[in-house]
Amino acid sequence: MLSFNILLAVLIGHVAWAANVAVTWDVSYVQVNRDGYNNRRAIGVNGALPIPPVYVDHGDTLHLTVNNHLDEPTTIHSHGIFHNGSAYMDGASMITQCGIPPGESFTYHIYAEQTGTYWLHAHHKAQQADGLRAPFIIRDTKCPYEYDEEVLISLEDWYPTESGTKMAEVTAPGSTGPPPPTFPYGLINGYNGNNSMPIRFVPGKRYRIRVLSMSTTEWWKFSIPGHKLEVIEADGIMSEPHIVDGLDLAPAQRYSAIVTALDTDEFNYIYNCTLYADFVPWTPGMNPRVYTGLVEYNAHAPTKQYAFSDDRQLAWATDIGMHALDSYPMPPADRHIDLTSRLYITDDLRNLRTLDTLPYIEPQVPTLFTAMTTGSLAMDPRVYGPQAQAFVIPHMQNVEITIKNIEGLPHAMHLHHHAFYIAERGPVDPAEIEIAPGTNFTPADLPRTTRRRSTGVPMRRDTITVPAFEYVKLRIRGDLPSTAFLHCHTLSHNVAGLAATLVIAPDVLQRTQRIPEDLIHMCLRQGIRVEGNAVGNHGLDFTGLPPVPILGPTAADN
Predict the structure, then answer these.
(1) How high is the pLDDT of residue 350?
(2) pLDDT tens-digit profile of 431-454?
(3) First to last CA, the chain
(4) pLDDT surpasses 90 at 139
């Protein structure tokens, strides 16, 4: 048994090393030209874009003060952070808090109990598409892998149009289908991808390359021809070594890979960053957009050229084939939840998406506040309103969630507060497939994938690609009481309603957590109720709730 003196020394040592890291973000509009072609209004921090990465060490507490100088509310979500015991710090607008109103401030207290590669981004409307996003790195002082240096590569897609205009096009009434595709530009570490900075290698050294996609819509591929990538992390979860040629990242996904520099500095090399969307027509120079940077071994050496490689001949990181390093076994499922993504056209000709039965719409009371103030009724999913698409999960229940994608658009599904086990992937039943107009798929493009089940200790992560016409099975344990938002991180899909809410152990929430007074008063000052059901009434009285949209045929029926 550990003696009292040893235990005290351990505790004192932890307190001595842990730090309080204070960061202030003055959030305001800025005028920028990030892609080299388009001047536009964006959202920056402290008068500038890009926003510098935020670094802390394991055990630190980040105190992020957000001063809102916009003309609308804002929130900041710490993507991938569990917020164990502080669900109200998740930063999801009208799920865990009201927005920070214009002219006001709020401080997020984020305890770094995890390690890995995360990011901070706006979670109000689609503000993160306007630039309000930054890497958030929690360094592990006892990393299980040895390396000499770190390199951070953040990847973004950047549109010439402000997010409000672009999102209005998606859900505007009177449409008969999705708007025509627009092609964004690529940013590397916050700047025009054509001006990417070199990565400097020293022969024989080992480099941890953290690659982070902060995209809103399109996918990225990353590789260094002539070098193998030893993947050791996905979305903050350390993995057993996974040797690949490259990384394929959906919006919001992250990887760490160790790259061992070659033994000679005879040549320099290039790294490839390719921004692409396989769900719209391939257009030379626009989709994909290929960006390259220099891997510099010697400033005077020539650059070694490689012939173009067919991506299908390369080995890409596959989360279903990875294994978590910590060896936590996947629990057996006590319950199954089946979800299917669909695109509907409403009676007023809006294009809305569903993950369950109705498009998600924000409630009029933050979902967490409803869970905390409705007593035993909080265990009834109806109290959260018909369009919260709520599923109540009792404490410690093990749930398997199947997400079927029966349409021709991939989805990047993210779950707040959790890293889920990846249990299975495979093709959907061809009889269920719906192909919407304007997508780059036909029945001849149906995937020829086979069902793949995880083996050994499955990988866990918080954001997963659900390819067109495929399904995934995810498993979680209800051990983190919270209101966990499950949504597509393709922003136009999220805005159109492709989301649901997992209300986890609300009875435990009521006993163990308390919403801070400043969050409560921030709502009240905006005229937002802070207790009751989704509309702020008692019981199941939803008087005042906006009418549920009338869903017509799916887009594939037109």
Answers:
(1) 84
(2) 888 876 666 666 666 667 789 999
(3) 70
(4) yes
| Percent of the chain clearing pLDDT 90 (strictly above) | 80
Give the residue from 169, 324, 158 showing the smallest Cα distance to 236: 324
Between CA 163 and CA 3 the distance in angstroms is 58
Residue positions counted in the chain: 558
3-class DSSP string for 502-550: EEECHHHHHHHCCCCHHHHHHHHCCCCCCCCCCCCCCCCCCCCCCCCCC
User: Is residue 16 within a helix (H) or strand (E), and if so which, with residue range?
Assistant: helix 4-17
**Which run of H or E residues covers position 41?**
strand 40-45
Token pair 């919260």 in the structure block, residue: 388
β-pairing verdict for 499-504 and 420-427:
unpaired
Average pLDDT over residues 101-109: 98
Distance CA 104, CA 128 (A): 19
Q: How many CB atoms are located within 10 Å of the residue 230 CB?
A: 20
Q: Both tokens of residue 367? A: 């979902």
Q: How far apart are CA 534 and CA 541, in angstroms?
A: 9
The answer to whether 405 and 341 have CB atoms below 8 angstroms apart is yes
Range from 176-180, 370-374, 491-495 carrying the lowest mean pLDDT: 176-180
Count of C-beta atoms within a 10 Å radius of residue 355? 24
Q: Which helix (H) or strand (E) holds 78?
A: strand 76-79
**In 3-state terms, what secondary structure has residue 332?**
coil
